[in-house]
């Protein structure tokens, strides 16, 4: 059963929108760099390898940000809709899509309450989104609703802020920061408002969960079938700089099907 929001949920969403609005331009620059390199090909091949086998997929990109996944999949000839709760991100995404000459249906929406009919999409993709959510169980239920029978969900994420609640992981996180300095590479955390993001992360439920174990249990309880994971997909999709920055927090991939 879908769960209603409460006032604290609304406050967290507002704080997240403000935070990502402030980061929209810088994050878009990162996406533009990815689109211009072999990363686009790597991600396109990875996703389509795990997607349902159709010539033209109806794809939903959840929490699209500046549009990297949406544009990458539209360039492969698929019918892509992309949603985000932050308008500034969608402005950047539309500009990026225009630059690459692809059509994407960009929609301003809370990703936990989608304006789409049941069984609308063959494939749902998202990257670094679920950890941001104030009600991830509700989100997984909603994505299940709009996913077509036989459709698949591909979720790429990590235990990004578990170090705030785990002393051992905190030491590993600090070692990552030292490693970037010792190897004279950009520290990606230094490029963000770390204090504000950590404040928000402390309020988000998944910051304290061990993932993807939590996701597997939740997905199965909702009704997804054939849930598969790769606990370190980052070795395939991250470059050397990212691997040094996030060594203690590898990205995982979850693939779940709806019968």
- Kindly provide the name of the CATH class: Alpha Beta
**So what's the oligomer here?**
single chain
Beta fraction? 15-25%
Which architecture per CATH? 3-Layer(aba) Sandwich
Under CATH, the homologous superfamily reads Vaccinia Virus protein VP39
The CATH topology annotation reads as Rossmann fold
Largest sheet: 7 strands, mixed
Tally of separate domains: 1
Q: Considering DSSP H and I runs of 4 or more, what fraction of the residues is helical?
A: 40-55%
Shape: globular
Count, helices = 10
The average pLDDT value, as a whole number, equals 95
Could you list some keywords that capture this structure?
single chain, 259 residues, alpha/beta, Rossmann fold, seven-stranded mixed beta sheet, 7 strands, globular, disordered N terminus
């Amino acid at each position: 059963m879908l769960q209603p929001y409460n006032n604290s949920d609304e406050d967290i969403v507002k704080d997240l929108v403000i935070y990502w609005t402030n980061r929209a331009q810088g994050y878009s620059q990162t996406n533009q760099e990815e689109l211009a390199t072999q990363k686009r090909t790597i991600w396109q091949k990875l996703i389509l390898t795990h997607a349902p086998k159709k010539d033209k997929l109806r794809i939903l990109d959840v929490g699209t940000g500046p549009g990297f996944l949406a544009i990458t999949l539209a360039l492969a000839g698929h019918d892509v809709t992309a949603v985000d709760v932050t308008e500034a991100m969608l402005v950047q995404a539309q500009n990026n899509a225009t630059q690459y000459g692809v059509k994407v249906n960009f929609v301003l929406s809370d990703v936990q309450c989608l304006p789409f009919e049941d069984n609308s999409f063959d494939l749902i993709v998202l990257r670094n989104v679920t950890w941001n959510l104030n009600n991830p169980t509700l989100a997984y239920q909603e994505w299940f609703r709009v996913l077509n029978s036989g459709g698949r969900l591909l979720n790429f994420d990590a235990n990004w802020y578990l170090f705030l609640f785990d002393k051992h992981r905190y030491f590993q996180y600090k070692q990552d920061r030292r490693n970037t300095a010792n190897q004279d590479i950009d520290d990606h955390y230094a490029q963000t408002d770390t204090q504000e993001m950590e404040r928000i992360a402390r309020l988000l439920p998944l910051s304290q969960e061990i993932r993807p174990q939590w996701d597997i249990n939740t997905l199965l309880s909702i009704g997804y079938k054939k849930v598969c994971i790769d606990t370190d997909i980052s070795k395939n999709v991250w470059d050397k700089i990212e691997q040094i920055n996030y060594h203690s927090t590898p990205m995982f991939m979850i693939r779940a099907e709806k019968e």
